[in-house]
Amino acid sequence: MISDDAGELAKAVEGSQLARGRILDWFHIAMKFKAAENSVFGSAMIEPLERAWVQSEIRSAKWFAWHGKGGKSVARIKALDDALMARTGYEYSTLWWNLQRVSGYIKNNAGTLVNYGARHKRGLAISSSIAESAVNLVVSHRMAKKQQMRWTDEGAHCLAQVRVAALNGELSPSRLVALAKASKTGARRSCHPP
User: Fold this and answer.
1) In whole numbers, what is the pLDDT of the chain averaged over residues?
2) What values do phi and psi take at 2, rounded to 5?
3) What is the Cα–Cα distance from 169 to 167, expressed in whole angstroms?
4) DSSP assignment, residue 191?
5) Closest to 62 (Cα-Cα) out of 34, 39, 82
6) Whole-angstrom Cα distance, residue 54 to residue 37?
7) Residues sharing a CB contact under 8 Å with residue 83, sequence separation 6 or more, in sequence order
8) Among the residues of the chain, which ranges form H helices?
9) What is the pTM of this model?
């Protein structure tokens, strides 16, 4: 299962019969590195000629993370942070804050890092961004309170189960009957066939 560091998903993976483990979502890692790279340009304490060096160090740390080497990535960020710490006011800067965030994120999730480069080459998923954007586009739009054709919580729950069953090849007539009964009664638990 690919996810960010949300704690509730760790329980779902542990209780799942299908998921073999959790992989940290590359999209969330890349966003944190991008914030650190962008803050280099806004930093008044870094001379224009030094910006290339700082960005190169951040990209190097990102390369280590991409290849599943969290310890080396964190070490690279720490070395950069130590080099910049001598500057007055650095510890109050956006760059300092973003470097701390990406370093902490990788440290806290070291056990869920994988070699994203190798997975990408094999055509395996490295991010949940496609699923997240689909949820935001379809489900969030239909669940909005001001939407005229709003879904109920129970209806959305049952619809999600139908979609998962269809994707897993488990859609059967008995399952459809159970879902139809559940939508009439509004009982969330009765979406599963007896």
Assistant:
1) 79
2) -100, 125
3) 6
4) G
5) 34
6) 8
7) none
8) 7-15, 26-41, 48-66, 70-84, 94-108, 116-121, 129-134, 140-143, 153-168, 173-185
9) 0.65
- Amino acid identity, position 73: S
Encode pLDDT of 14-53 as tens digits.
Answer: 555 555 566 888 888 999 999 999 999 878 788 888 999 9
How far apart are alpha carbons 16 and 1 in whole angstroms?
Answer: 10
- Confidence band for 194, pLDDT divided at 50, 70 and 90: very low
Concatenate the DSSP letters of all residues of 75-118 into one string. Answer: HHHHHHHHHHTTSTTGGGSHHHHHHHHHHHHHHHTGGG---HHH
CA distances from 165 to 28, 92, 175 (A): 28, 51, 9
